[in-house]
């Protein structure tokens, strides 16, 4: 498996987890956030589908998603739901950053840059909702040095 394909599979895995996690987030998010949660969930489904298409265009099949994903902490009200959204978007940004670094094809790199940017913007939105300051980092997706 090439470095690009490994990174792309890791990004797809993060999108699978995001789609699943946004179901949990939707169950506990503040009712005022229902439209936002639906929008962000749809964005992850679209990114998942587009990533699967990248595999198929390259002549390979992606690995199947896990049957379920366990949140890193209990989610039982709106604040943990918003914190889970931050974790999900951070994980997606990190995975897509990895694709940007390892992509050998222009179409894959372009898709990864778009996905990284979208995840960073969604993360910043959730951080603002939680009152975190600053709402973003210098290089979203990059591991701290």
Automatic annotation (TrEMBL):
InterPro entries: DUF4439, Ferritin-like, Ferritin-like_SF
Domain of life of the organism encoding this protein: Bacteria
DUF4439 domain span: 7-143
Annotated Pfam families: DUF4439
Protein name (database record): Ferritin-like domain-containing protein
Organism annotation: Nocardia rhizosphaerae
